[in-house]
Amino acid sequence: MISKIYTIAALLLALTFAKPEVAVAQATNKYKCMIQMTSYMGEGAYIVISLIDSKGAYDKTLYVLGSNKKWYKTLKEWHQFYAKNPSNISAITGASVTGGDRSVNVIEIETSKINAGYKIRFESAVEDKAYNVKDLEIPLTTETLAAKNDGTGYIRYVRFSAN
Predict the structure, then answer these.
(1) In terms of C-beta density within 10 A (0-12 exposed, 13-18 middle, 19 or more buried), how is residue 71 classed?
(2) Which of 14, 35, 36, 68 sits in a 20 to 30 Å window from 149, CA-based?
(3) Which of 5-19, 22-36, 84-98 has the largest mean confidence?
(4) Which domains are seen in the chain, by residue range?
(5) Cross-strand pairs, 53
């Protein structure tokens, strides 16, 4: 009986001082992201939606429109980040989008990043045309997630809605 008490006490003591090795999942919100393109002529645009930290550095790739990896290098700024930190983006990759069309995709954003100094950047590139490193860049706030946000290149505007 005494040995059982010592065993239980030792186990409780070990659990008290143990460092948890399990990562805690971050709370996320899913948003439908609708991108309306301008009526440009040419190939489909490759667009990367990225989370940018308060210092202007890439934090995370949220979505990629365009699945042929050979064209990722045309998204120059993002590709530098992606090449240094390659990850499996197949779950967040869809078709490119052509002039005048729209695309609706679901992106996940960690709740802790909203209203915390982060931005969402939309980079766009079209074969044989200009590259737009900041076709659209908006502060990641509850207000901008509820508003229509105008692009400056191939993107006419972007709207988010809770999914």
Answers:
(1) middle
(2) 68
(3) 84-98
(4) 22-162 (2.60.40)
(5) none
